Structures are given as structure tokens and as C-alpha cells.
Amino acid sequence: MSPDDIRFLYDYNAWANRRSLDAATPLTVEQFTRPLGSSFSSVRDTLAHILGAEWIWMERFEGRSPASLPDVGQFHEISALRMRWQENEARLNKFASRVTQSDLNGPHEYRTLKFGQYTNPLWLSMQHLVNHGTYHRGQITTMLRQLGAKPFSNDLIHFYRERAGAANA
Q1: With a threshold of 0.85, does the pTM exceed it?
Q2: What is the pLDDT of residues 93-152, one digit of tens each?
Q3: 42 phi and psi, to 5 degrees?
Q4: Residue 93 needs a FRET pair 20 to 30 A away by CA distance; which of 12, 45, 99, 134 works?
Q5: What is the pLDDT at residue 167?
């Protein structure tokens, strides 16, 4: 995994997260927080989980291992979630923009919330962050359908196509 590969994945991740937030924006507060029986109860809780996971991984990338995720209850409306997300996205993309091949291949040591201490190459942790978000964004698409809201497409191929279209324009 090269630094350019990581930057590309993090651009994709930010693009897909923004699409998720945009798709959830028309929801009422009741719809946003309605329990739907997924891994995380509601659209809000699932979005907040993605944000929290990205935040905790960023903390780990910087050498810290927090003992808990942020409280999802603080995000009563999507605007509060979006504001926090923009701050974290900027941190992640700044980190990704500076990472070197040596950094990526080097050991990344961290403590998880439940499973203990681990060491693996940094590229593996950085790749995991994007994959984790992809999994949960798929759940959000399903929840939006359950709510009768318009789903969104965040497949990687759509990102490639948009990028190619912008480059050819």
C-alpha cells in the first residue's frame, strides 16, 4: 500500500461519508433517531459510530488509545454530527497527506476497546478505517430505505467515475 493509495482511499472515504450525511439530512429528528434494529439502533447511531471509529483510529494513529468512543447522545440533529465530522475529516486527510512509505510499513501499536494490545503495519490500520466505514454506510442505505427516504450510492466505482468525469471535464 503506497502513500498515494492511502490518500486515494481517504479521499473516497470522505466522499462516501459526505454522501451518507447528505442522504440523512432530509430526515426528521424522529426518523434520524428511530430504532431500526440494525447493528447500531438508528441512522444517527450508525453515523455517530462511523465518526467515533474514525476519531478513535485517528487518535491511535497519533499514538493515543482512548478508552471509549464519543457519546452518540450528543448528536440530536445531523448538523451537530456534520460539524464534528468535518473537523475529524480534516485531521484524517491531513494525516494521510503527510504519511510516507516508511510510516505505512512501520509498526502501529495501539490498544483496542475490548480486545487488548495490537501491533500491525500502519497501512493495515489505515485501510481498515475505510473498510469499516464502507460496511456501516451500507447499513445506513438499508435504514434509509426502511424509512422511505432516498438511498444513496457510495460504491467505490461511482467515486472512480466521478473522479474520471471531473478529470475529463
Answers
A1: yes
A2: 999 999 999 999 999 999 999 988 999 999 999 999 999 999 999 999 999 999 999 888
A3: -130, 175
A4: 45
A5: 66
Could you give the C-alpha distances from 14 to 7, 22, 33, 43, in angstroms and in order? 11, 12, 23, 18
User: Predicted confidence band at 39 (pLDDT cuts at 50, 70, 90)?
Assistant: confident
Alpha helices in the chain (DSSP H): 3-24, 29-33, 43-61, 78-98, 101-105, 122-146, 156-168
Average pLDDT, the chain: 93
Q: What does the alpha-carbon distance between residue 135 and residue 133 come to, in Å, rounded to a whole number?
A: 5
Domains along the sequence of the chain with CATH: 3-168 (1.20.120.450)
- Rg for the chain (alpha carbons), in Å? 16
Report the candidate in 36, 50, 48 with the shortest Cα–Cα distance to residue 145: 36
Amino acid identity of residue 68, one-letter, is: S
Percent of the chain with pLDDT over 90: 82
- Characterise 108 by phi-psi region: left (phi > 0), alpha (psi -120 to 50), beta (else): beta
Q: Nearest to residue 93, comparing CAs of 130, 49, 50, 137?
A: 130
69's grid cell = 468512543
Q: Which residue has the cell 469499516?
A: 132
Half-sphere exposure at residue 123, Cβ-oriented, CA atoms within 13 angstroms: 15
